[in-house]
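Hi support team,

I've been running sequence recovery on a batch of backbones for a student project. Most finish fine, but this one hangs at about 90% for roughly twenty minutes before it completes. I'm not sure whether the input is malformed or the queue is just slow. I've pasted the structure tokens below so you can try to reproduce it. Let me know if you need the job ID as well.

Thanks,
M.K.
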């Protein structure tokens, strides 16, 4: 029994040849999903606040669907539902892509976090004072320079508190990867529980690891807030 527990600890924390550990897989899923979602959502958030309905409506529909349905259902549709279609299996690239649990999990996570992040950034863009935009226009900024040097930097700074919550939620959401047989922290904890019946130990260890990662991320975002949002802190009276 002790040897079996040590084996699962090794799968969670220590590298074993070319195999990733459970912690490494969880962090890999998190970094890939939030990085891709972050980059895509910047462009979508600009379209979301556009005055052109043909730009705004498709983005609104995308965020409405992915924020209105559970991530678990989205993962099941992408991993199991799409691969059951003949059109997917008959296409060489699509068949290669959707038969992988890793790729399906990443796609589901990216689409989900992109929807939420788009709305976060769009709200931050709307909150920018009109005076800043008018000042940029007075200096002769084009729309491209306006978004690049004024709107996007200001919106990203304002969105840090809300975006930090989204990153933590995405860390927790990676635990659904076991659905696609991806060996993340929860998948290894479930395997340990099924082999040893030590439910409290198996899932307790997983909970502690998730907490440690969460608190580390919270600390990093607090540092970012103190650096980039210091000008928004209330002035201290003498």
């Amino acid at each position: 029994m002790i040897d079996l527990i040590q084996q699962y600890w090794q799968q969670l924390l220590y590298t074993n040849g070319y195999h990733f550990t459970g912690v490494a897989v969880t962090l890999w899923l998190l970094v890939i999903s939030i990085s891709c979602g972050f980059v895509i959502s910047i462009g979508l958030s600009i379209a979301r606040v556009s005055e052109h309905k043909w730009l705004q409506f498709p983005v609104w529909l995308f965020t409405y669907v992915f924020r209105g349905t559970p991530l678990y259902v989205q993962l099941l549709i992408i991993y199991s539902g799409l691969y059951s279609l003949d059109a997917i299996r008959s296409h060489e690239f699509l068949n290669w892509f959707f038969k992988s649990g890793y790729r399906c999990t990443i796609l589901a996570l990216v689409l989900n976090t992109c929807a939420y992040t788009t709305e976060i950034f769009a709200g931050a863009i709307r909150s920018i004072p009109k005076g800043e935009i008018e000042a940029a226009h007075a200096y002769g900024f084009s729309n491209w320079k306006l978004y690049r040097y004024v709107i996007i930097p200001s919106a990203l700074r304002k969105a840090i508190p809300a975006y930090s919550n989204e990153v933590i939620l995405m860390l927790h959401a990676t635990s659904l990867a076991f659905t696609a047989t991806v060996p993340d922290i929860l998948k290894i904890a479930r395997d340990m529980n099924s082999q040893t019946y030590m439910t409290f130990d198996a899932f307790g260890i997983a909970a502690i690891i998730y907490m440690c990662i969460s608190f580390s991320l919270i600390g990093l975002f607090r540092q970012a807030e103190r650096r980039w949002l210091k000008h928004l802190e209330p002035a201290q009276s003498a």
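--
Follow-up from support: It reproduced on our side and the slowdown came from queue contention, not your input. The radius of gyration is 22 Å. No action needed from you.
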